[in-house]
Amino acid sequence: MIAEEEIITPLELKAKYPLTEKAVATVMQGQKTIRDILSGKDRRKFIVVGPCSIHNPESAFEYALKLKSLFDEVHDKLFLVMRCYFEKPRTSIGWQGLINDPYLDNSCKIDDGLTIARKLLLDIAEIGLPAAGEALDLITPQYVQDLFSWTAIGARTTESQTHRRMASAISCAVGFKNGTNGRINLAVNAIKSALRPNNFISISPDGHSAIIRTKGNKNTHIVLRGGGGKPNYDSASIKKCEEALKRANLPVRIMVDCSHENSNKDPYKQIEIIRDIIKQINAGNKSIIGLMIESNLKSGKQNYQENAGNLAYGVSITDPCLSFDETAEAIREFYRECSW
User: Fold this and answer.
1) 33 in a domain, yes or no?
2) For residue 68, what is the domain's CATH number?
3) Which residues of the chain have pLDDT under 50?
4) Residue 5 counted as domain residue
5) pTM above 0.85, yes or no
């Protein structure tokens, strides 16, 4: 049996939660700063940091307030961007994220999920903190993409031609992750594709089917997240990635994802990875432009199905995370130790 249910249009949601002057300034400045970091005009590194996935908007906003304080503290050397992931790709089955299932009960109230996500992004932008997301679905960017300063294309979708075309339309910088098998050529090819003008089918702001014609996105880079059971943040892997980008005549710009297979999903391994990256930068590496860290108010993870209705506040329900205090200490170490 197939059922159809109309949902709110992008225009209707944006009318309900419109951009404010403060939000626009936050997003635009965030996009410009990251572009300048990618081009070398800005010598800072940028760090995408925050929950593996957001399931509770109240705890996410509390995290944002804490991160904004840290943002102000390290702003002269580091540019912090809050990770706000509302959709979750799945290898097989599992919770698909706040937009798809905001109440964690498989009711899939997508209207509510889109509304909660947009309101939270507006609240975060209002405090002056830039946000980052993952473009997983081809439709949802019409509802929330105007509030992101950086966007990821994940390991499972980097090989998708449709996602590559979509990335060519996104106005902010886009990071392509290497494949789940660890192959970096998938991301290299994705960058090459997103550089070019493209055409793809999505929806218009008023909810009608539409052909999206793009000009290409020059502000792209690779994200190394490990794969195939192996990490790829070490200096030998970084050099191999640099050489692949050079052979493809692409800018040599690399972000290291400290989580996923680089850490074997051990949140504390992220701290070791950050220290390794510090050593590489201080030894003269010029290609590493940023980091990604999975972090929440509290450390670890919880099984949301086993704890339904009684979830611990500020604890991840997907990948295990560092606590905010542990994260702040690691970022401060990065701030103190890196010389550029």
Assistant:
1) yes
2) 3.20.20.70
3) none
4) no
5) yes
